[in-house]
Amino acid sequence: MEADRVFEMPVIDRQKCDGCGLCISVCHCNILVLVDNVITVVPKQGCMSCKRWCSKCEDVCPNAALSWPFEVVIE
CB–CB of 56/26 below 8 Å? Predict the structure, then answer.
Protein backbone atom coordinates (compact mmCIF):
# COMPACT_ATOMS: atom_id res chain seq x y z
CA MET A 1 0.00 0.00 0.00
CA GLU A 2 1.23 3.47 -0.81
CA ALA A 3 1.93 5.26 2.47
CA ASP A 4 1.66 8.76 1.01
CA ARG A 5 -1.61 8.16 -0.82
CA VAL A 6 -4.75 9.47 0.87
CA PHE A 7 -7.93 7.45 0.44
CA GLU A 8 -11.32 9.08 0.76
CA MET A 9 -14.66 7.86 2.00
CA PRO A 10 -17.88 8.52 0.10
CA VAL A 11 -19.68 11.72 1.05
CA ILE A 12 -23.35 11.35 1.93
CA ASP A 13 -25.89 14.12 1.52
CA ARG A 14 -28.22 13.26 4.41
CA GLN A 15 -31.01 15.44 3.01
CA LYS A 16 -31.08 13.48 -0.26
CA CYS A 17 -30.80 9.97 1.25
CA ASP A 18 -34.14 8.20 1.63
CA GLY A 19 -32.66 5.07 3.21
CA CYS A 20 -33.48 2.74 0.32
CA GLY A 21 -30.32 0.68 0.96
CA LEU A 22 -29.36 0.09 -2.68
CA CYS A 23 -25.85 1.36 -1.98
CA ILE A 24 -25.43 -1.15 0.86
CA SER A 25 -26.25 -4.00 -1.49
CA VAL A 26 -23.42 -3.09 -3.90
CA CYS A 27 -20.73 -1.96 -1.43
CA HIS A 28 -17.74 -4.32 -1.67
CA CYS A 29 -16.08 -2.73 1.37
CA ASN A 30 -19.13 -3.12 3.63
CA ILE A 31 -18.66 0.34 5.11
CA LEU A 32 -22.21 1.59 4.51
CA VAL A 33 -24.95 1.08 7.10
CA LEU A 34 -28.38 2.53 7.77
CA VAL A 35 -28.57 4.70 10.89
CA ASP A 36 -31.90 6.39 11.58
CA ASN A 37 -32.93 5.48 8.01
CA VAL A 38 -29.98 7.38 6.48
CA ILE A 39 -26.84 5.86 4.99
CA THR A 40 -23.78 6.35 7.15
CA VAL A 41 -20.14 5.47 6.52
CA VAL A 42 -18.73 3.22 9.24
CA PRO A 43 -15.16 2.27 8.34
CA LYS A 44 -13.82 -0.95 9.75
CA GLN A 45 -10.86 -0.97 12.11
CA GLY A 46 -7.70 -0.65 10.05
CA CYS A 47 -9.74 0.40 7.02
CA MET A 48 -7.92 2.68 4.61
CA SER A 49 -11.29 3.40 2.97
CA CYS A 50 -12.47 2.15 -0.36
CA LYS A 51 -9.34 1.74 -2.42
CA ARG A 52 -11.05 0.46 -5.54
CA TRP A 53 -12.95 3.64 -6.37
CA CYS A 54 -15.67 1.44 -7.79
CA SER A 55 -18.34 4.16 -7.33
CA LYS A 56 -21.08 1.50 -7.47
CA CYS A 57 -22.80 3.05 -4.46
CA GLU A 58 -22.87 6.39 -6.25
CA ASP A 59 -24.10 4.78 -9.47
CA VAL A 60 -27.09 3.00 -7.91
CA CYS A 61 -28.32 5.83 -5.69
CA PRO A 62 -31.59 7.09 -7.19
CA ASN A 63 -31.28 10.40 -5.31
CA ALA A 64 -27.61 11.21 -5.97
CA ALA A 65 -27.02 11.19 -2.21
CA LEU A 66 -23.51 9.69 -2.47
CA SER A 67 -20.44 11.18 -4.08
CA TRP A 68 -16.69 10.62 -4.03
CA PRO A 69 -14.43 13.51 -3.05
CA PHE A 70 -11.38 13.45 -5.27
CA GLU A 71 -9.46 15.78 -7.46
CA VAL A 72 -8.65 15.06 -11.08
CA VAL A 73 -5.09 16.11 -11.86
CA ILE A 74 -3.89 16.24 -15.46
CA GLU A 75 -0.16 16.47 -15.82
Answer: yes
Q: Are 32 and 24 in contact (CB under 8 A)?
A: yes
Instruction: Output the tens digit of pLDDT for each of the chain's 75 residues.
Output: 444 445 567 889 999 999 999 999 998 888 899 999 999 988 777 666 565 567 888 999 999 999 877 666 788
In DSSP terms, 33 is beta-bridged to 40
CB 15 within 8 A of CB 57: no
Q: Give the global pTM.
A: 0.72
Q: Which alpha helices (H) appear in the chain, and where do they start and end?
A: 22-26, 56-60
